[in-house]
Structures are given as C-alpha cells and as structure tokens.
Amino acid sequence: MPVVGAQQRPDWLPAAVDELHAVVEQAGAVKVSGLDVRDRAGAVAAIRAVLPSPLSEREGFAPRDTYAPGVYSSSHWPQNQPMCMHHELSYTLQFPRLMAFCCVTPPTTGGVTALADARQVLAALPPDLVARFEQTGWMLTRNYNELLGTPWTQAFGGDRAQVEQYCRDNDIEFEWDASGGLRTRQRRQAVVKHPVTGERCWFNQIAFLNEWTMDPGIREYLTDEFGRDGLPFTTYFGDGTPLTPAMVDQINAVYEQNTVRHTWQRGDLLIVDNVRMAHSREPYDGEREIVVGMGAPATRG
C-alpha cells in the first residue's frame, strides 16, 4: 500500500486530493502518515477534505456517532471481538465507493485495520463456490428489535410507514412481529463490476455477517434465546440455502491469505476504494478512536 508522508496540518489535503485519488484508483488504497491531527475535529476536517459527495449511512448493523454528513465514529463493536473482512454497506443498493479512516487515538495493542484486494480474493476462491454465488446471489436476513441487534429506529430512522417505503424502494422484503420488531431479507449480487475500472470484484459481507463467523458461545446463546430465525443477522445463498461452516471458514481463510495489515499511529489517514478493497478491524486493548468517512456514492447496476 503506498504511503505518503505529510507532517503538516490537514489543510494541505485539498491541494493534494486529486493526486491521492489517483493513487487509490491505481493501488486500491493510500495511507497519509504524520498529519498534525490533534483532536476529533481535525480528523473530521481531514476526511471531509478527501471524500467527495458524503454518503449518509442507512441500514447500519452497529451503532455509530455522527460527526458530520457522511462522517462517523467507528462502529460500536466489542473491542475484544474482531470485525471480519467486509465491504462497507455492500448489502445496500447505494454504497460508498470511497472510505476514509483517520486516527485520533491509536490503541495500546491490536486494533489493526487490515485490507484485502477483492480481485485477488475472487481469483483465489473455489470456482464452484463463486459460480454458485454468481448464479444465486447472496441473501442477508436481519432482525431489528430493542432486545437484540440494532433497533430499526436507529438503522432506518423515521416511522413505520417510512421504513416500509424505504424497504420497497430498496428491494428489501420486510415483516413486523407482534412486539413491533422488524425482520428483513434482501438479495444482492456477490460479484460486481467496479464502477470505474469494470474489473470483477468479490463484493459482499457473506462471511462477516454469517452466523458461523460469530463467537461460538455468543451464537449458541443467541440461538437458544431467540432461535435460528431470530439471530440479529445471518447470510445465505440467494436462493435461501444455508452456508456450511466449512464454506464460511474457506472464505475467511482466503481473505487471510490476501490480507495486508495497517497499524495505526496518531495522524494517519487511510483512503480506501471500498469496492476493490475489503477491510477489517482486529481486537484491541486501550483507547482507540478512528474517525470514519463514506463518500463518492455508487449504485448497483
């Protein structure tokens, strides 16, 4: 991954943004190191300088704090649990083509943000598995309620009528349960053409949001309490066929074989092509503050 040394205030970035975007288009990601980012406001300013057309998150699977249009905290995800490889909002019809991450406070240990090239992952996966996903797509099921997962009021906003209209507009099947919880199903392509280069990319969250990637103890507890159909999320082949643990392990193993890790230092700014590169977050100790931006909206063809 190319690295650019800055050692100056973030107001240097607007003059360099075209050059940085050109590097991202060629390499998939670029790190700017040594920016004089002293606080959260500085990180927000840096991200806004390098991300065109901010994209507001919808259908989030973990809460975030909003700092500016399209600029957020990292997901509130347990720091002792990994966030496996995924492409941000790859289950939505409109998603960010570019992501930016800026470090305010690095963790004491761990907390690495890792990247994997989706073209290489696609080439390394078993051809029969890829062919099956290309034929059927993939399906994500989610349960939104006050006891489990993200409430629908946070994930969508608005009232029930607005949520239903959003679901209809975005090809999401939905149903309400007796307690006012929401269950959704959406089918998406697992392999897409890059909106700029046309290259085929493995673009999804099949493994990350699958039940077999959960911590076994957490999965067993949730299944006992809510039933398999009541899990906060899981994934299937697009025709509804469950994935086996071996399939999920295989996808995660291919990601691991193609992973490049980035250790955070204060003032690091990472710009990522969200279609070409999957990203993850490893467990960590201590405080960790990474400000996240989403921009350059793209729409599925």
From TrEMBL:
Every TauD/TfdA-like domain range: 11-292
Keywords per UniProt: Antibiotic biosynthesis, Iron, Oxidoreductase
* One Gene Ontology MF term: oxidoreductase activity
Q: Name one Pfam family in it.
A: TauD
The reply to whether tRNA-binding figures as a keyword in the UniProt entry is no
Q: Which SUPFAM superfamilies match?
A: Clavaminate synthase-like
The cofactors it requires, by name, are: Fe(2+)
Per the record, the GO terms for biological process are: antibiotic biosynthetic process
> Does Oxidoreductase appear among the keywords?
yes
Protein name stated in the entry: TauD/TfdA-like domain-containing protein
Q: Which organism is it from?
A: Kibdelosporangium phytohabitans
